[in-house]
Amino acid sequence: MITDLPLEQLRTYRPEVAEPADFDEFWARTIAEARAAGGAAESVPADTPVTAVRVEDVTFPGFGGEPVRAWYLAPHADGPLPCVVEFIGYGGGRGLPHEHLAHAAAGYAHLVMDTRGQGSSWGTGGDTPDPHGAGPAFAGMMTRGIESPDTYYYRRLVTDAVRAVDHVLTRPEVDPTRVAVTGISQGGGLALAAGALHDQVAAVAADVPFLCHFERAVRITDARPYSEIAAYLSVRRNVAEQVFRTLSYVDGVSMARRITAPTMISVALMDAICPPSTVFAAANAMPTPPQVEVYHFNDHEGGAGEQVLRSLRWLGEVLG
């Protein structure tokens, strides 16, 4: 059922979302350190029976130069090719190559980034560890290292997303002026972050994005992953101020304020995992209004295959 604001209120919903004064400095420092850490990229033919498109098993340096796995799929063409970098939803990993054929079939180079420390909750798995410890945390990823923005898990994951864009820009067949980022749920939140933090992203397609307007999300939904934060705070009763300060460094609303590339966002009005008000808070914060695709009768699955088609058509118009 619809449990959030009516659509007419959602379209104008612009809440006050706290943003740390050193937000830009924090991310500039984090990304500069990751780039300076180096680390070698490797790309080898994938072990797959898929032959209609080119498929490579990629490792590229992410946060701290640490290895991140990915699949790279592309048409058998010399280029220059438009490229889509895709990020995965919470708990999932890069899966298997044949699960990611749509973009290559539509003529795009396509990098599917694995998600460090995840990949064992649904789908067909992931291959990238997160070699960092954390203090006391609730089960899941949302509270790992949440004591400080410097140690927070999503600092590392957002940096991986930016470095994934760096990687495709090194590939000779990719047109550096036509690189888009996309993802669903957690992947949509990472797409907003990469669009905000990488100045060569030419388009952003974020579906039912997670990681937006934390202070509202944690209070209005019982669904995971946001409920992991509430559960943590129900035990660690005296650290709420610090927790929300840490989360403010990765909030999609603050990221959205910095996105200048054309953007498409999808939202589902019956979404209990990423409530629509949290999505509209990000959409309405953008300097240039995004194209918003609304699914009136859907939960967190959003537009599913229909949204894939809408996104591909929109990318074709934006990237040419």
UniProtKB/TrEMBL annotation:
Binding-site positions, substrate: 90
PANTHER family given in the database record: CEPHALOSPORIN-C DEACETYLASE
GO MF annotations in UniProt: carboxylic ester hydrolase activity
Entry-linked SUPFAM superfamilies: alpha/beta-Hydrolases (SSF53474)
Active site residues according to the UniProt entry: 185, 271, 300
Domain Acetyl xylan esterase: 2-315
InterPro entries: AB_hydrolase_fold (IPR029058), AXE1_dom (IPR008391), CE7 (IPR039069)
Origin: domain of life: Bacteria
The species this protein was found in: Ornithinimicrobium humiphilum
Protein name: Cephalosporin-C deacetylase
Any GO BP annotation: polysaccharide metabolic process
